[in-house]
Batch of 3 targets.
Target 1
Amino acid sequence: MKEAGFDEYTHEARELFDNFVNQAIRGDDDITLAELKEQLEENMTLAEIKEQLEENITLAEIKEQLEENMTLTEIKEQLENDTAFTENEEPTDDKNLFECFESVIHENRSHYVSMYKSKSKINGELSEDFIYEHFRCLDCGSRISKERPGTKCLDHICVGCGKKYQTKGETKSPNALKNCIRKGQFKTNGSAYKTRLNSVRNRVCDFICVFYQKKDGVANSLTGILHIPAHKITEDHVIPCKPLSSSARRAGWQGCNILMSSFNVVYS
């Protein structure tokens, strides 16, 4: 999957930056994107600025630059750094994702173990880190973000096209995964029933299911990755669980499972 981003700026886009600098009254280092916006046109929208800077820069990136008050010099330096980085980065298709998964576990395991008692929470964060670091958007090939922990029914957003994803980590042996693929379906935990129903109705995001084997209760080795498009999941696929009893700490809370019956094999 090809990565889209700063590395695909055209020569004309770079010339635009130089022209903006040459037309400015003050020095290069003193001009921010916010001021540049005023120079271009008082009521110019972010979308219009995006068009001026070529279509491969994302609104999220421009918004971040405006908030950080970056100067043109800093932006040009970032362009050069990002281009050098992406030229040397190994394409996702050429990576051994099994080794990448183990690397993420090795680097981040102790951090999450110190933060959380729940092995389920630890494995969920590790799965999201893995997807964030080594997965690219299936629609446009761009990098994806990692959203804040606790964001309901959403873990990642593509920085290129805005497509949304949720990562589901689950334990499965290679043989168990092969059986799921052969049968064409499997079940996974779907969190709170009503929240999940709303997410499914609104076609909020695609699912990326990361399957792994555990060691001492924590994810250790990758088994495979499946992708389930949002439009392939309907309300009928959301199976409610029995509400928790009145004596439970979260009395009345109702979870659910999701029947995944239409998916694409990303890696196995």
Target 2
Amino acid sequence: MNSNIHSDSDRIHQDNIPLGIQSIYPMAVDLSIGHLLVKALLKNIPVFLISLCLIFLVACTSTSHRESTGQYIDDSVITARVKAAIVADESLKVAEINVETYKGVVQLSGFVSSMDAQYQAVKVAREVDGVKSVKNDMHVK
């Protein structure tokens, strides 16, 4: 018997060792999750990068119900310009006009004091760069 046997488990394993072999236990191998992930990523960097690019490409595309990131930013700029133009117009300063933009189409809603103010608001919105069309949902008080 070998003097390195310390437990019943070691004794069982020692009995099964053929002559000339020191141990049946394999060498220590670093199989941590982080190590395996890094190894897999390094092997598959091109596939990983292409997949990552496709994910971002799909995430930034628009659908019929959702704007892309670029369109959202463009629409935000158009909305800000239309609001600034409405506030700058003396006849519309007191109007309660809400402005929303989706894919270049501006929607005006809220309340104005007269039909002339309503027409003026639509005219001002149409004159802003980037506006494709104006949808008028305003009401006269």
Target 3
Amino acid sequence: MDAIAMTKGIIIVGYGTRTGNLTEIIEKQAARMRARGIGNVYTAYFRVSSPTIQEAVSRAVADGCNDILAIPYYIAEGRLTFEMIPAKLGLDTGSSRGTALVDGKEVRIRMASAFGSSRALTDILIDRIADNGGDMDTGILVLGHGSRDLTSSNEEIMILNAKRLRAIGYRHVAHSFNEFVGPTIAEALKTLAAEGVSRIIAVPLFIANGVHLGEEIPEQLGIPAYSEGGDIEIGGRKIQLVYTKPVEADPRLTDIIVAKAREFLGE
């Protein structure tokens, strides 16, 4: 295959959703890449939303691509990025690169990494805090999804970002998860309240809005669904809670995926 001229294509892969703004985010990032002069950029979703991963690969191949980079628009690595997305791309289980037969054509396919430990995620959290009037004495709650997947780095990334915030000088930082692992949101709120804070900024380290951020987490925080916060009571004390947006299509994430694309393109 090395002797054949390679036409490269890029697929941004999101998880998929029935609600929320994930497709808008993925499409916005694809449009930004095209605006930077990167050609053959496609979008795909692991589940629910369309186009599917297989549909996006077929479209890229129909357009003449025979060398494809899939960029997962995910916070953390895990079974999805290690096994399930590669399988849908036609790669062997556990493989991040290889060749696949797509509509009768041999295609080289490789997977990029998730955002993971990127400092950009920390910087986005800091900006969310600053934009909502936070200072070093404000209670900060870093929110993660949580996972049963033992290969997932989701828990590690939440701990890392909380640690970075403390290292910068934020005095009251806790992290928690929506489900599957602890500490729970209730436990983290009690920890911050016990430190005497009168105001908490909850910053979700999630990609997009949806049921988790709009309904499940607000219920655990004690604020109205699809709201930006409100007053909550913990241990008989009233505390103001501010609930920020997720990372969404932040331009720093654009820079990360553009850098992955340019490296793949040899630019």
